[in-house]
Amino acid sequence: MAERLASSASLLPSAASPSSSTRRAAVASGLRLRPSPSRFSQAARRVRGGAGAAGVVPRLRVVRCMAASEAAQLKSAREDIKEILKTTYCHPILVRLGWHDSGTYDKNIEEWPQRGGADGSLRFDPELSHGANAGLTNALKLIQPIKDKYPGITYADLFQLASATAIEEAGGPKLPMKYGRVDITAPEQCPPEGRLPDAGPRLPAEHLREEIVALSGAHTLGRSRPDRSGWGKPETKYTKDGPGEPGGQSWTAEWLKFDNSYFKDIKEQRDQELLVLPTDAALFDDPSFKVYAEKYAEDQEAFFKDYAEAHAKLSNLGAKFDPPEGFSLDADKGAVATEEKAVADPAPTSDTNGAGPQPEPFVAAKYSYKKRELSDTMKQKIRAEYEGLGGSPNKPMKSNYFLNIMIVIAGLAFLTSLAGN
């Protein structure tokens, strides 16, 4: 019995209802499985409340690990994640969610789940309360409705799916991800605090050797908040107006766009509004790192290639897969090529079946606070107003003192409106 308990390492039901095959196996072996979907915080509270809860008789139950995720539900969940990204601009925190769930892996421990890694443990309060995970409750609140909608997927897969989708939707490379990760089922299985990398260790370069230079490039997305990590400014000119929740200090000016600007900005260090952590500076201070950092600053394609491989490797750390080899959501290469082409070559926005010009949709990869040229629609509007007052591109307006005053007033009002927007 002790051996069976050790192998299952679980005292609580999994977050999704067991499959029919799992139920049949449980009945045959004399185990009782009770489907009990739970939110990330509710599970922890049940464990702490256990024997002391009124009317509850504590009993030992053996529950098997959650079965593999269903590919069809993962694909649907990916589309829902894309919609969330369009409205909340939460790309950075979803990347962080996937990283922090897998980043607890300890290569010196062979047993699962003691070794940590991508196992969905971040949904439980003991790990969520780790200092390095401050603020990730917001990511779980975004993800939980998707988990409720698709019970046939594991938290471990969902966290990594959200992270990869955020990178791709922000303009990053297509990641060679695989799925089928198994969830842990109890807070007691969470890894101890202190396994995640530190931003300001005593020897930044030595500490950073535990990571990969390419992965540091993901800091091109997001902001650091002093109330969560202890690093960064409360706000800068790039973050004071959002989008999303305003504030924090970003590593790059376009902090919702995934590119190689992180390496360029760290190398130049010209903008005091941008964040440079000790581990960031080490990329160009340490000779062994500098070779790669210089390469990525000059060659974005090389950075994308290495980052895609590094991210996929990180997402697999410590994970237990079912089936053991995992599975891909993009096994059909033709479908992948079609999807990539749709992103690379969007349909012309000018063809609107006679409905007139349409507003340009927000695309995170194109997001920027830098000054931009007026859109064609705005130019047409200004020209129409100018011609309505008697002017034209080839003929200046007739001089009229009163009219000139009105034009000046209208111009000031227009500029004020632009500034407000």
TrEMBL record:
The keyword Transmembrane helix applies. GO terms for molecular function: heme binding; L-ascorbate peroxidase activity; metal ion binding. Residues 1-33, 216-250, 340-362 are annotated as: Disordered. The chain crosses the membrane at residues 401-420. Residues 117-344 form the Plant heme peroxidase family profile domain. Its EC number is 1.11.1.11. InterPro entries: Ccp1-like, Haem_peroxidase, Haem_peroxidase_sf, Peroxidase_I, Peroxidases_heam-ligand_BS. Residues 1-29 have a biased composition (Low complexity). Its cofactor is heme b. It catalyses: L-ascorbate + H2O2 = L-dehydroascorbate + 2 H2O. The keyword Transport does not apply. Residues 224-243 have a biased composition (Basic and acidic residues). Keywords: Calcium, Hydrogen peroxide, Iron, Membrane, Metal-binding, Oxidoreductase, Peroxidase, Potassium, Transmembrane, Transmembrane helix. Signal peptide: none annotated. It holds the Pfam family peroxidase. GO terms for biological process: cellular response to oxidative stress; hydrogen peroxide catabolic process. Belongs to the peroxidase family. Ascorbate peroxidase subfamily. This is L-ascorbate peroxidase. It comes from Triticum aestivum (Wheat). The lineage of its organism: Eukaryota, Viridiplantae, Streptophyta, Embryophyta, Tracheophyta.
